Structures are given as C-alpha cells and as structure tokens.
User: Which sequence fits this backbone?
C-alpha cells in the first residue's frame, strides 16, 4: 500500500527519515516494521509563530518497495537527420527550448555568445582580481545565462504558463537534487547548477544537435517578413558564420546590442517596465533570529531563513526580489563603465550574510513623462544609472554602499560593515544621487518593513548599489497564439530577454512553449 500522509512536525523530526517513520507509526497506527520506505514529496516551513514547524507530505510505502524513479524521465531521441532550428542564447530558455525541440524530432543549433560554463568561471574571477569585466563572458553572458552563477532558485508564480513540474523533473534528470521536487521554494545552488547545465548541453550534442560557443548573432537573414536564419560573428576567428532555419531568440535581459539591432532594423519592440534598487545585505544570523523568532537563530535543523516583503509607495510597488539566504552579492555588469549587483547562494546556504534585491517598480511613463515613444527609453535609463554608480564606485567594480538606517535618515555612512561583495565597497550617499523616485520610495518601504519585522531596519545592514537587471527593459512583441513575432514569421522571441519570463523556471517553461510552436509551423520551411 502507498499512502500520501500530511504531517506537521518539529524541525528535528523533519530532518531525519527514521524519526519521520516513527512519527507516522505513532500518529497513524502503522507498524513501523511494515514501512519499507518514505519519500518527501512536499516540504515547507511554517515560521509564523514562535514555535517553528515543518509541513510535510510523505509518500509512505507500506509492505511495498518504491519501484519508480523519484523524478519523471524524459526520452531524447537522435535528431541528427531532423530539420534544423536555430536557438540564439544558451540560458534556461534556450536550453529548455533546445531539449524540447529534440523531443519533437527537430535538430537544435544553439548559438551562444559567451564561453562554456567552466571557462566562464575564469572571467568571473578576473572581475574580483583585476576589476575587469569581459563584455562577452560575465555573470550574465555565457552558458547557463544569468541564472548559472546567480543562485539557481527555481520558485515561480507563473503557474498558468506551462508545465513547471516538467522543468523541475528535467533538472533532476541532469543531476539536480530531487529535493527541488518537494521544497516549497526549490533551490539548486550556484555551486551545483553549472554541472547540471553541462549535462544538459551534452545531451543536446549526444542527440545530434550543435552548440557553438563564442558565436555572437549580429543580424537575422530576412526574406521579406520571414526570417530564414542568422548571421553570426565567431569571436575566436573573427569570421562570419551563417546558420539557416527558424529562430528561437533567447538572448536574455542584458543583451542590449540585440535590442539596439532590433530597433535599428525596424523590428517591432516596445519599452517595458522594470524594477530598480539595491542589494540589501544583513548578517545571516540576524535574519535567522528575526524570521525564526529566536535569539539563537536557526539552530541545527532549520535552513538559513528567507524573507519576502512587498508594499505600495505612491502608486508603485516596493518589494524584495531574489532573496539569497546565506549567500553573496556579486558584480553583474556586462560592459565597461557599469556597476550592477546581483545575489547568489551555494546549495548549503552557509554564508555569513543574507541578501536580497530591494527594488522599486519603474514604468516607461515614469521616465518619459508621456513624451517619448522610444522603445529603448527604459534601457537608456538603466545604462545611465549604472554609469553613475560606476562613477560613484571610483570608476572600478568597487560598489557604492550605505548603511541601511543611515540611508533612511539621509546620512552618509562614515564606515561600512563587512560584506560578501568581493570587489569591495565604497561609502556613498545613495539617498542623494539615486533617482528620487527610487530612493524616496525605498526609504518609505524600509520604514514600513522595519515595523513589520523588529530589527530588520538596522545599520548592521548595508545597501549595495545598484540592482537594475531585474527583468528586460524591452518586450519583443509576439502573437499570443503562435508565439511568433507580430510581423516576422519564423522568429520566436523567448524567455526573459523577450519580456515573457522572470526567473529560471518561467524562462524554461517559455522555452518549451516556443519549441512546441516551432514544431507546429516548421513544415513551412
């Protein structure tokens, strides 16, 4: 007999399968000797009260052995002779699009401007050691996209867009822990995700697809209002290369050269709202104490604590974003004269600090005052703020920063707390030079959040500027039914860079959806 049993237990019990079996035996009257195995299929932490509990759904095998895998296996056939589809970008949208194309018997040709996930790490290290950003290989560009080295969180609210469970199962198939199938806020970890990405790439190649690194798309090959392929520049040989077929465009939210090309070529795009702010970093022990209502912090059996805040200030959302418990703040610029920050966590979330983006909603009309139809206006706003931040950071990757309470009081911080941000911090009056529509709303938001969680608003916490890459500043318009571009046939704008996803899972879902639509229309090629 197989039973799914709902439990509400103390963290110590939830951490040990033998204790869970004993608990089930006592609570449900089942002889523990007949329970051959258990599997946690749902897990969440309830920290609303002083006593913290863990909610579990436990699949219990009574007088039976589990015969199935913990995840659903997807078969990937040989597509060496299949019709060719170009996938531009090897972030989560591009990877899942390519794998889904293989399921349909189509042959993906993946074009990635950056380096493979191992070589990419060397360029990330140079940001710290040499204060230099490689324009084509950084925290945003390269195999795995922005998600590969920025935490690997798999939580999404986009339940209606596609098969989220499929995305999680595919990750497990390629090496992720099956814990992601159970956890309420699943997380792979930036130390584990690169290996998973490598395995996904090798499957694409094993099935007969191709993956081309350091190959940068420069333009579409257009015939009338139909795309017939892409022209690329090989960044190693400096030679032009041509690839033919319908195009899934999954270039990520930071590929500004792509947005400029689209605007220059007259391919319809539109400005899209983003969120702008800072990375807020606290000592992880302080966040544990606040969230778990315990001066001792999380103790032995609980994970590093998470938080989520949201409010409205003067008609715009102010909220936490991409919370990284026990994590690091990282330099995420993609070019020269920029400072951009993001966050990541290793799988054990064991760092001394916890951080999150703290951002304010910014809409195109907030920037243009209704006087501009420029589709790149929000992107220009990002660029301007990132350059100001670089100037404030001594024209290096040292980031301008301010203690949290000082920011709310409009005071310069004369010193700064220790930080996880490796290139270093420089004290700066963020309240003075950040856009008023952002700084003023952040100040009010922090005051509100501080009232919700005693101890959260503190000078032990540090604001690190600037968080600008929360989502794409442009939407590449597509038809709601076919997912093709509104005017260009055979072009499928996809994922975060096209403005249709926000995070690893939703990008993967959108990649699969675009691949499904390509499979429907490819007979015309």
Assistant:
């Amino acid at each position: 007999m197989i039973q799914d049993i709902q439990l509400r237990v103390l963290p110590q019990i939830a951490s040990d399968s033998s204790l869970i079996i004993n608990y089930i035996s006592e609570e449900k009257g089942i002889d523990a000797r007949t329970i051959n195995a258990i599997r946690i299929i749902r897990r969440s932490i309830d920290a609303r009260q002083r006593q913290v509990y863990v909610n579990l759904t436990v699949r219990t095998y009574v007088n039976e052995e589990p015969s199935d895998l913990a995840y659903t296996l997807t078969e990937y056939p040989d597509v060496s002779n299949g019709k060719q589809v170009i996938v531009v970008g090897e972030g989560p949208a591009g990877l899942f699009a390519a794998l889904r194309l293989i399921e349909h018997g189509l042959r993906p040709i993946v074009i990635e401007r950056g380096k493979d996930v191992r070589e990419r790490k060397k360029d990330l290290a140079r940001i710290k050691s040499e204060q230099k950003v490689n324009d084509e290989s950084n925290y945003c560009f390269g195999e795995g996209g922005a998600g590969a080295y920025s935490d690997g969180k798999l939580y999404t609210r986009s339940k209606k867009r596609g098969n989220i469970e499929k995305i999680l199962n595919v990750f497990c198939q390629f090496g992720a822990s099956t814990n992601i199938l159970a956890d309420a806020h699943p997380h792979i970890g930036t130390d584990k995700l690169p290996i998973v990405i490598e395995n996904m790439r090798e499957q694409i190649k094993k099935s007969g697809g191709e993956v081309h690194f350091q190959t940068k798309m420069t333009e579409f090959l257009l015939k009338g209002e139909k795309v017939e392929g892409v022209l690329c520049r090989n960044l190693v040989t400096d030679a032009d290369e041509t690839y033919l077929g319908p195009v899934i465009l999954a270039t990520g939210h930071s590929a500004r050269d792509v947005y400029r090309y689209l605007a220059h070529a007259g391919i319809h795009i539109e400005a899209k709202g983003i969120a702008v702010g800072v990375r807020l970093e606290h000592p992880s022990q302080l966040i544990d104490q606040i969230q778990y209502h315990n001066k001792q912090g999380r103790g032995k059996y609980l994970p590093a604590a998470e938080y989520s805040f949201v409010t409205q200030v003067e008609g715009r959302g102010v909220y936490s974003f991409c919370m990284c418990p026990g994590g690091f703040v990282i330099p995420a610029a993609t070019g020269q004269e920029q400072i951009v920050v993001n966050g990541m966590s290793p799988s054990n979330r064991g760092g001394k600090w916890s951080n999150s983006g703290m951002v304010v909603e910014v809409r195109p009309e907030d920037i243009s005052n209704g006087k501009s139809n420029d589709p790149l206006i929000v992107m220009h706003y990002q660029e301007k703020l990132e350059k100001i931040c670089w100037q404030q950071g001594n024209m290096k990757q040292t980031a301008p920063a301010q203690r949290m309470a000082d920011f709310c009081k409009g005071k310069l911080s004369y010193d700064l707390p220790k930080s996880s941000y490796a290139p270093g911090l420089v004290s700066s009056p963020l309240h003075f030079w950040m856009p008023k529509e952002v700084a003023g709303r952040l100040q009010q938001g922090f005051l509100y959040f501080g009232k919700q969680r005693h101890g959260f608003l503190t000078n032990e916490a540090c604001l690190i500027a600037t968080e600008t890459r929360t989502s794409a500043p442009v939407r590449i318009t597509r038809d709601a039914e076919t997912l093709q571009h509104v005017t260009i046939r055979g072009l499928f704008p996809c994922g975060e860079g096209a403005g249709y996803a926000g995070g690893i899972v939703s990008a993967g879902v959108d990649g699969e959806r675009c691949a499904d639509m390509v499979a429907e229309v490819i007979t015309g090629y």
In short: The longest helix spans residues 504-521. The CA atoms of residues 155 and 185 lie 5 Å apart. The mean pLDDT is 94. The two ends are 52 Å apart (CA to CA).
